[in-house]
Amino acid sequence: MLDFDFYNPTRIVFGKDRLVELDTLVPKGAKVLVLYGGGSVERFGTLEKVTSALKEREVVTFGGIEPNPKYTTLMKAVEVVKAEKIDFLLAVGGGSVMDGTKFVSLASGFEGNPEELLACGFNPVPVEKALPLGTVVTLPATGSEMNSGGVISHNKGKFPVFSPLSFPVFSILDPTLTATLPPTQVANGIVDTFIHTVEQYVTYPVSAGFQDRTAEGILQTLIEVGEKTLADPDDYDARANLVWCATMALNGLIGAGVPQDWTTHMIGHELTAMFGIDHGKTLAVLQPSIWTLRKEQKRGKLLQYAERVWGITEGDEESRIDEAIGRTRAFFESLGIRTRLSDYGVTEDKIDDVVKALEAHGMVALSETGDVTPEVSRRILAHALHGA
Ligand code: NZQ
Ligand code: ZN
To answer: Are residues 260 and 244 in the same domain?
Structure first.
């Protein structure tokens, strides 16, 4: 096992009908900015429940944070924070609203040009104070509710932003709030959670028994509940398992002490920025191709994945790995997610642009060993076009 620090201060408040507890979770006397997305929380009554739970406080609202939240939109929220002298932020929504709120929290107290916060990559941003924030999760996918990162869109790029100050103070996870999600968003969330897990698991072995077994448990749970959550939005147990898997897949637990890849995510972000493909769908497109082309580097963990997650024990190594990749693709397709880049209207002549964007964003040494060069990314993208 590799050395690690593990720190996670977020309180999780899990279960049905717990929004009323906002009254005790948010400091008394705080002036609260409630941030949300394009209107789903208004349509389905969540915003109303949130504001009435906070009724003894002064509450200001800021709606309109779009999927893949934009820097320019978030800077408008920063103006509201300053003008209204806000002292607590509450995100009500999916990953985009939570990530956007983290950015608002950091940018509000930053003395310099907040655009600089987008240029730090995986290093913590140089911010010393940030507004405290809480979240109410309406879409299980990103794990943003219990981690310290966010992804912000700006000028045709997507930029990770990290700070230890960005952990939410609390997150309310009420699985019933996810019942209104359209099936395509549920499927995106299942795939995103699956890929978060394998980015930290299908690398190279370091004898991290707990992390491996926990990752395998998350993957198997997703396979068990995936189709059920789509078939019946009111199946509480299925939703509850999905919600908790999404949180646990990216809160630092399974990633502590193990190598991490993130190639799929970094190339995926360029596909979202360039073609507007949903985050989860970019991952479903890329993962089978990445494993197909990187079998040698990942052989040990791919064989472990084949055996422990899919129960594949027959045949030679090559055919076991191929079967595991095929079963993974079939799982994503069974959720209604297409897994070839050409399914999203992307053509071969666009690959060069994606590779250039990766270079422009410094994504030139990806993977757990840094050996995914722009040339390797090009081969991955070419394979993903019609991936077999
Ligand atoms: O905007 P509204 O109207 O609320 O609609 C949203 C949005 O259109 C809708 N929605 C959310 N909850 C709903 C609902 N519709 C009906 N009922 C509900 N209960 O769903 C749509 C998508 O929402 P979004 O927040 O964009 O989705 P997701 O949670 O998948 O977040 C994606 C963003 O998170 C980033 C991605 O890059 C992307 O920008 N990520 C953040 C990570 C993190 N912070 O750790 C890690 C991830 O890998 C990811 O990169
Ligand atoms: Zn993701």
So the answer is: yes
